[in-house]
Fold this protein.
Amino acid sequence: MTLLRSGSASDIGLVRSSNQDLVVETATLFAVADGMGGHAGGEVAARLAATSLTTAFNRHPTGAGLTEAVAEANQAVWEHSLEDPDLRGMGTTLTAIALVNEDGRDLLALVNVGDSRAYRFHDGGLVQLTTDHSLAEEMVRTGELSAAEAAVHPHRHILTRALGVSAEVMSDLWWIRPERGDRFLLCSDGLTNELDDAQVAEVLSSVADPARAAELLVQAARTHGGSDNITVVVVDVLVGEDEPEEGGAAAVAAGDAPLPAIAPSAGDRGDGEDASDSAVTPEVQSSRRERRRAKRRQRRMARGRRLVTVRTVLFAAVVAAVLAAGFYAVRWYDTNSFFVTVDHNELVIYQGRIGGFLWYHPVTVERTGVTTSDVPATYLSSLRSGVEETSVAGARSYVSNLVTVEQQQNSAQGAPSTTAPPTTTTTTTTKAGG
Ligand code: MN
């Protein structure tokens, strides 16, 4: 028997012109979607993903059902984007956690595509469960960047996987055994870009009510800059698996019973295995390690055999398909992106990727006439490295929002402020602010 209690909050932030984040919060399914795409694209993508995920999961409320639901959500967004030229290229991140019953045991299934995140907070420790599908994260994995460098890298928002941008999507899946006292946090990057782990943990440890904790996290991210939409879901495990529902009876022995023999899909794809280690409760970790090692060996061997057949029969076709897909992906990736940066003290909008991408180089779209003294000084360093937007309209409204913020700050300095964002209980503790 597992009992959950949840709360959520979402906010447009201080500089974006629309909120393209979305929350799913039902009794057993919780998700965050962070949409992207010009004009209405991001909002449509996030909404389609959220509704089709919920509908499909309710039809098959199992772990396999959750993975199927992600595939259906991908299909819904992808097909819709083909029907409407204004929505072409839209997509969304999706991080979802669901309480399911597998072979009579309550488990949490966690899936992820993109750079929204899931964390587990337990006994004061905050652990990130998901792996970002971003260029910066890939560079960390290959050793080109440290985690600290990745957190401020200008390419940290470039996704290597998103929902709805192609006919198929790969999602990572983790299994977690819920324990009393577990607190799960799902959030869009608007939270983690503004707050470091210590600041997030401070709120999670000091505020018991999940809805209030979600609200305070969102407010703290606004206070720290609010440069993106901010969305948070907090899910508390009130009663965990194998625990007596009320005090009295002695705790049922846990730990020996194995988790259901379902191979994590992330493992099949060769990444995310380390992350799945951290998602499993410590008690079962050691007993599972041996079996997992054996499984991994088997999988490697199976993969080897498969590769040989594929290579001998389909090599040319596969290479051609990969090259074509790569070419269109790069072109899509480049023409659907804009960024704002500083040139001779003026804010300039470019089309393309910061620093160029493969054979594409950024093209000037417009010089805005807005100078570095018209915008808050705190945004200058990120502007100098370039701030990405998915449309010209988005880039323009980003610039005009910065000007508005600067004007409000200037007028607020003259008179006693009535519009200052609410302060929170969050304080920076031992870690220096990121
Ligand atoms: Mn975002």
